[in-house]
Structures are given as C-alpha cells and as structure tokens.
Amino acid sequence: MPYCLADWANWKSNIILEEVANYIEKQSADAQAKAIPFPLHKYLHHGLSSQAMAFNLMGPLITSGDYSPLSELLRSKQIQGADEIRTASFEYEDRDVFNEDAGQPTSIDIVLKDAGGQPRIFIESKLDEPEFGGCSVFGDGDCNGMNPIGCEDNCFLHFIERRYWKLMAKHGITESVRHDRQCLFVAHYQFFREVILAIEKGGTFVLLSDERSPVFKCRSGDREKGLMPFLTGLLPENLRASVASISTQELLGSIKKHERHQKWASEFEKKYGMA
Question: Which whole number is the average pLDDT over 65-78?
Fold first, then answer.
C-alpha cells in the first residue's frame, strides 16, 4: 500500500527530518546498550503510525531545543508546568510506580522535564486509534472481565502484586465505579495507568490527538463528547486538573507561528492531510 513502507527496516523514511530519524535511532541504540527498553512500534513504517506522527511533530522541537511553540499552547490551556519545560524525551517509563518488575511496563509517549530533569508533563499521542488500550489479560481470554473492586485478588494483575488497584484506591478513583459489573480496565486500562503514573510523579497527563477523530473528543451541539470527557468524569474532582488534552492541529498551528519551523511544519501538514 502506498501509505506503508515495504519493510519495517525502512522506518526512517517515514520521518520527515533526517536529524530526527538519526536522533531516534541513537536513542534506541543507547537504550539497548544499557538494557533499557525504548520500544519502536511494530507499525513505525506505516503512514498512520501514531509513534511516527509523534516523532515527526515533537522530534524537531527536541532536536532544536526549542519548546516555545509547545509551551505557548500548553500555557494557553492553563496546564501546570508549561513554563518549566527545558528538555523532553520519548517513551518514558518507571517500573517502580506499579511494581512492574517484568513484562511490558506502563509507558508514556513523550515526557516534558523541568530544569532539574524532573518529569512534569506526560503526553500520550493518538492518530487514528479507535480507543485507549484495553487489558491484555482480558483480551487474551484469561479474565472474565468482572469488576474486582472489593475482591482485588480476582484480578490476575493484582494477584501478582502490580499496584494498579492499590493506586486507583489511593487516589479515590475506585469509588465512582465500585458497583459497576464490568472491570474498568477491560476497555480503558491504558488511560488509567498513564493518568496514575503522571499523578504519582507529580505531573499532568495530556492527550495529543487529531481533532478529525471523534473518538477522544468531539462536540454534539453544546455537549462535549468522546472518551476524554467520559473518562475524566470518572476521576475525583481534585484529579481533573491533572488531566488535559490538546489537538495535533492546535500544536501544528502554534509551531507554524515560528519561522524556524515553518518548512518542516508544512511538510508535516502535507504528510498528514492537513494542508
């Protein structure tokens, strides 16, 4: 297909700027040398890869060290830490938060750090995905999907001492779904893991998504609909300020205001059908 490169090994051809492709390649190689995961996605060579899109949109800001377009947008959304961005990196994880000593840990696409190197803003990138990721234990047929709140050992992940449900309870999230029949993780596992990771690290979770997709955020008359308002509504009031969303189009618009980024931003606009 014309939107998919012939082989995964050609993934660098899916990245607009050569310096960004080289940066990603080096980051991956350095991580492997230290036995630290830096997962390059299975479909990185695909035109609709959300990881490739994030590399193309955020990579030039990272390699140039110019976060002003991003800071300006985040500031306009009143997102905490917007003025403190000094560095950024892709594929952030911390296995200690959830006691993820083995297997695939909770990973955030982009993390923005302050002058002290502390993560402040955690960004999850979506392009054409129809959902947040669900629980793989249920997906593999090894769980009946019933709500385990009150009987947490019925959840295999809790049984093997992952701290997901403990931290859900700590932050008061379980109260609003305690009497649901279906487990919240069946369909929305990724959202709650990433939100809790951001909160536990003292930061803000931000969704970056394409405004053409109605999945995560859309309007119906005067009503805001989609997964983000629904899932954010399940959080206690005190946590909602730690969850926000921005659109790819908003960030691109902010980037295009800066002359040094206009050439590659125009290429991005064409590549993703935004021109």
Answer: 97
